[in-house]
Amino acid sequence: HLPFSPPSSLRGAKRRGNPFCLFTLLLFLASFTATAQETTTPEEIFAYQQGRVAAERLLRKDTLTDAQIKKAVEGFAAQLEGKPPVYTEEDIRHATEHHHEQRQNTREMLAQKNQEEGEAYMRALEEDGSYRFTDFGLAYRIDHQGQGATPVKGSQVQITYIGKRIDGSVFDQGKQPAWHPLLSLLPGWRSALLNMPAGSRWTLVVPPHLAYGERGAGDRIGPHETLIYELQLLGVR
């Protein structure tokens, strides 16, 4: 998952569900279907896996309470059995609107939290003095300065990288050297690479407007999140 410039269609960040909730959901499903040990045909195994996939999709979007899990299983079973909904269309519409509103509120709170923490982190770097800052707000530290060619806008670059959050946790890495068009990368990366001779290794602290902005990137990167990259430029062509 190399940090390419995020397309306009990139979806917002999602919260990953609790593994305990997934386990509980599967226990509920077991009351309606045969257990894995009793499954004997490929068709039954396929149906079992489809149930797991449906649960994974649901929990990828939201963390559910036990009461919500129970209702999800009731709806799942009712649909399989061809039963009509027990709630009116108005009830469902109102609940859906409420759910979307709650998710949006949660996302806005997360975005504000990430923005404030990122700005505080940048201020600490300025006070520390170990990082330099570009006019666009990128912070960088030269860990090793190479002696090779420096990329231009039309270049392809061979790189390795490690991506971290400001709490130090690793969310992505590309340990194997790979070639990529410079213009396909994040703005913060491009800004640094245009000044990095091949053989260099820099640490970048990338503010959200030079990374994934208010959209984030799926369930890996939240809205307005400041990111740290250990970036090594191995070659230019």
SSE layout and pairing:
Layout: H1 19-30, H2 42-61, H3 66-81, H4 89-128, E1 132-133, E2 139-144, E3 156-165, E4 170-181, H5 187-193, E5 201-206, E6 227-236
Antiparallel strand pairs: 1-2, 2-5, 3-4, 3-6, 5-6
The percent of residues in helical segments reads 40-55%
Would you tell me the overall average pLDDT? 85
Strands in their spatial order, largest beta sheet: 1-2-5-6-3-4
Shape: elongated
What is the H/E string? HHHHEEEEHEE
Uncertain spans = 6-17
How far do the termini sit from each other?
A: 22 Å
In what range is the share of β-strand residues?
Answer: 15-25%
The biggest beta sheet, please? Answer: 6 strands, antiparallel
- Rg is 23 Å
Identify the quaternary structure here: single chain
Description:
- The protein is an alpha+beta fold and 237 residues long.
- Helix content is 40%, strand content 19%.
- It contains five helices and six strands.
- Helix 1 (19-30) packs antiparallel against helix 2 and helix 1 packs parallel to helix 3 (66-81).
- The protein is elongated and about 70 Å long.
Give a short summary of the structure.
It contains five helices and six strands, in the order H-H-H-H-E-E-E-E-H-E-E.
